[in-house]
Design goal:
Elements (H helix, E strand, L loop, with lengths): L1 E8 L6 E6 L5 E6 L4 E5 L4 H9 L13 E6 L7 E6 L5 E6 L3 E7 L12 E8 L5 E6 L5 E6 L3 E7 L5 E8 L5 E6 L6 E5 L3 E8 L2 E9 L5 E6 L5 E6 L4 E6 L9 E7 L8 E6 L6 E5 L4 E6 L14 E7 L7 E6 L6 E6 L4 E7 L4
Antiparallel strand pairs: 1-28, 2-3, 3-4, 4-5, 6-7, 7-8, 8-9, 10-11, 11-12, 12-13, 14-15, 15-16, 16-17, 18-19, 19-20, 20-21, 22-23, 23-24, 24-25, 26-27, 27-28
């Protein structure tokens, strides 16, 4: 069991807030305080690049240790870019900023560009929030976009033709700053987390969206969440230093009642956990935070019935004490190569890691 650093990606000139893998697993987007989005990847052959333009979401990943900067997206927003996410088709990048906007970048056809280069154009700017925007998320079909903000609201936008976006609903329910939003990977169910120490679950009801559940368990700000390797589970991370594993009480498809089935406490000073990601491919949970470390947890294979019995056990399989030289702001598993992990930190760099389990 180990977490081995494979690459250090430099180029940002301020803290890096977020990283996001493309659906095909070949590219990595990062964003931060320098108001830029950077897209990284291994340079594909000309044939592979053409395949990317035709089918970005399904192209197989290249296996290449030579990471390079493929594009820098600038001048789209005037303040820190807090979060960026790829659309399911792999041709759009949505980004939210402390300037309260959400912008959409569109990947352009390769044309005569050299292999490995990318060209992006600013396709849309979506405005509505009154204060800093904190997170953005696409639904599984790329037809809906959710944003959240310091103004305590969550907005849901419908993605129309020609990159037009129309507001479908403004959700009020959190009592404080909303830090994070995430759609369920299989259903149009939205999860949010915030400064009021809660998570909320939203579903469409009678042509509008409504809060169907409020999850209380953390004792301080909830910074993030991730849907589990099972559709009826999620993990959340908090300023209280813990990870909480939640399970839908009535199984998949029923999200109105939840129970806590496990709580992973931090060691020592219980430092804030800023980011968590639960790989749907491998089942490994990665977490990073204010103690500059990255930890990876896996469900105990010696208790295979733990989840069914609402008593799963998770063990720490790997830990890197100083994964970054300052706060770890984001960790994300590769969707195609589940042993690859990306992280972003206050030290202005992006790091790529390889995780191997015991016996691999």
């Amino acid at each position: 069991m180990s977490l081995k650093q494979l690459a250090v990606l430099t180029g940002h000139t301020d803290r890096v807030w977020h990283v996001a893998w493309s659906p095909c697993g070949k590219y990595l987007a990062s964003c931060g305080g320098d108001r830029a989005i950077r897209v990284w990847g291994a340079p594909p052959s000309q044939q592979q690049q053409q395949q990317d333009d035709n089918d970005a979401a399904n192209a197989p990943p290249t296996v290449d240790a030579e990471w390079r900067l493929l594009a820098t997206l600038e001048d789209g927003q005037t303040r820190t870019v807090r979060c960026c996410e790829w659309s399911p088709c792999g041709k759009l990048l949505a980004a939210v900023s402390f300037d309260a906007t959400c912008v959409i970048w569109e990947l352009q056809p390769s044309g005569g560009r050299a292999a490995g280069e990318m060209e992006w154009e600013l396709a849309a700017s979506v405005e509505g929030h009154e204060h800093e925007a904190k997170c953005v998320a696409w639904n599984r079909g790329g037809t809906l976009l959710a944003t959240c903000s310091r103004d305590k609201s969550v907005w849901i936008w419908e993605c129309l033709q020609d990159n037009d976006f129309e507001c479908l609903s403004v959700l009020h329910g959190h009592e404080q700053d909303v830090k994070f939003v995430k759609f369920h990977p299989r259903e149009d169910v939205l999860f949010s987390a915030g400064y009021d120490d809660t998570l909320k679950v939203w579903q469409e009801e009678d042509d509008d969206w409504a809060c169907v559940a409020t999850l209380k368990g953390h004792t301080s700000t909830v910074w993030g969440l991730s849907i589990g390797s099972r559709d009826d589970g999620l993990v959340s991370c908090s300023d209280d230093g813990s990870l909480i594993i939640w399970k839908a009480a009535n199984g998949e498809g029923n999200y109105e009642k939840w129970r806590i089935v496990s709580k992973l406490e931090g060691q020592g000073n219980k430092a804030t956990v800023y980011s968590v990601d639960w790989s749907r491919e491998s089942g490994a949970i990665a977490a990073g935070g204010a103690d500059d470390s990255i930890r990876v947890f896996c469900e105990d294979v010696e208790q295979p019935q733990g989840w069914a019995l609402d008593s799963p056990t998770f063990v720490c399989e790997a830990r890197v004490e100083k994964a970054h030289e300052a706060d770890v702001n984001c960790v994300r598993w590769n969707p195609v190569r589940p042993w690859l992990l990306a992280s972003a930190g206050d030290d202005q760099v992006v790091r790529v890691w390889e995780f191997r389990r015991r016996g691999e």
